[in-house]
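Box 3.1 A note on notation
Throughout this textbook, protein chains are presented in two layers. The first layer is the amino acid sequence; the second is a token string describing backbone geometry. Keep the layers aligned when reading.
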Amino acid sequence: MIANYRVTMSLTLLVSLLLFGVGNADDEPAKTKIERNDKLDGTWDDEGKICVITKNEITIYYSTSQPPTKIKITIDSTTKPKQIDFDEKGSAGLGIYEVVGDTMKYCVGMPPSRGKGIPRPAATRPTEFKQVPGETVLRTLKRREPAAGTAVKIQETYLENEALADVNYTGRMVTVTGTVQRIQRGEGGYVVAFSPKPVHLLFSFDYATRNRLAKLNKGNEVTIEALCLGKRFVKGDSGEEAIFFAGGKIIEAKK
């Protein structure tokens, strides 16, 4: 059984901004001083949806049947407030952001509507963290710190108390140690299964990991770091559930 990961933008309102026109990146002069703010990097919970920010990219996960959506971002932490630009397919969303403790807040300008069939003009960058209907979108995200556990322990937690499992694992980057049951091709790459019965743990890997995965065998003890998406029904297998993990990275493999 192969897990088909449904993944799309978690920034729901931002999708409409990017897809329906927020102007081009050329509408604003290029920045001359860019600094990276590492506090922005990490895993964030957007009201149950998961955002992973690394360097100049944000990956957004919804559920489990499509490949993840990746959006390029540009950060300028030298300004007040700090600036964040979202770039998808040539359209740019101009915003501001701040990170305080485990909370990240951002505000993005919306292009004003001119009526059906009339092109929207370019949006302007907000100057304050305020949601104004039809003008800005304000979102608040909470950081999800990394976690670790064995495949058996994680499975037991999901079976006994799924609320506790969601607190401890869902939406976090989790380092998991378990025994390989099988490796199969999946959408966009491969799926590695740890199979402590009765609920499988399924890890998605991209095609770039093929050579590393080819060296694994059934019964190998492997430690994998991946984003836990929680317990879901396996598509095509009626009534069967699995615990899904995305963006797998092999940390250690033992014969």
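Residues 151-160 form the longest helix (10 residues). Confidence is low (pLDDT under 50) at residues 1-34.
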